[in-house]
Amino acid sequence: xxxxxxxxxxxxxNMSTLLKYNDIVLHNYF
Length: 30
What we know:
mainly alpha
């Protein structure tokens, strides 16, 4: 797998983790 592709996948997984975290925070505070 090319480096660029793995970087993109890493970025996507980081973003999805952040979104899940934001979801939890929003549910807790609102």
